[in-house]
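User: I'm new to structure prediction. If I give you an amino acid sequence, what do you actually give back? Let's try with this one:
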Amino acid sequence: MHKKPPPIHLLVSFEASARHNSFKKAGVELSITASAISQQIKQLEEHLGISLFHRLTRKIELTEAGVVFQRISQHTLHAYHSGYSAFQQQFSKPTIRLSVVPFVAFELLIPHLQELESLCPEIDLRIETSMSLVDFEQEPIDAAVRFGLGDWPNLHCHVLAPSQASLVAAPKLLQNQPIRTIDDLANHTLIHTRNSENDWHKVAQLSGVKRIPHKNELVFDTYLSAMKAAENGLGVAIGLFPLNNNWIASGRLQPIIPPLDTPYNHYFVYRKNNPKLEQLACVQDWIQQRFNELAATHPPD
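Assistant: Good question. You get back a string of structure tokens that encode the predicted 3D arrangement of the chain. For your 301 residues, that looks like this:
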């Protein structure tokens, strides 16, 4: 067994082979032939002076030494990839991965990406849409726009805007079937988003009733889908402001009741120990400008 560790490229072939229990599958993953993989494994075993695989008729299995060396190779390659990622971030154009709900992405941010390029030309912004809260410890996300109380541990939470809520519907729907009291909702369909189906229970509590009368219910997986459904006259939804200010100002939706204050805010959040603080500050300023513009848009009556 050599005192020097084996060349790192041999660890790549070994790790893939051990993970797949197959030289052929490892070759497919690494875009080389199975025989080339086999030769590299043989070279690695000669370097180590010990067999790493039992070669059976139709498969391969790790030896006891192979199991131990698999852990070493996995740890080594993980450290190499992590280190190279950090190297790229330091010496190449910094990438900011931003998680937002689809409504914020398509209605608020994407139409203004050119402004970000002018404001922060050195940043490569990657927008990822999701209705779920990302786990900053487990996912490669740098920042997010969130809606809530701001009680997320280990995150810096910057308030972008306070939030109000109102019932909204298409103007034509309200013209044909006016809603003047809570009882008039008995003629309408209630629109939910999947992760906030209890919001209508909160409306009932605020209205002093046990349940909201309704004709039917529709459930959508995103807030954007729910607003599009309401815009198309499919029912009544709970709209958030200032997010929906432009939709009200353009006549796409109409508020049914005056907006009510909520305890929730829109936040720009990121890990406190994120090394990209300068770039995050630039993105935060850009997003803050978008929310300021929304707040300045004619608010719902």
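You can read the tokens as a compact description of the fold. Here is one thing that stands out. The chain has a mean pLDDT of 91.
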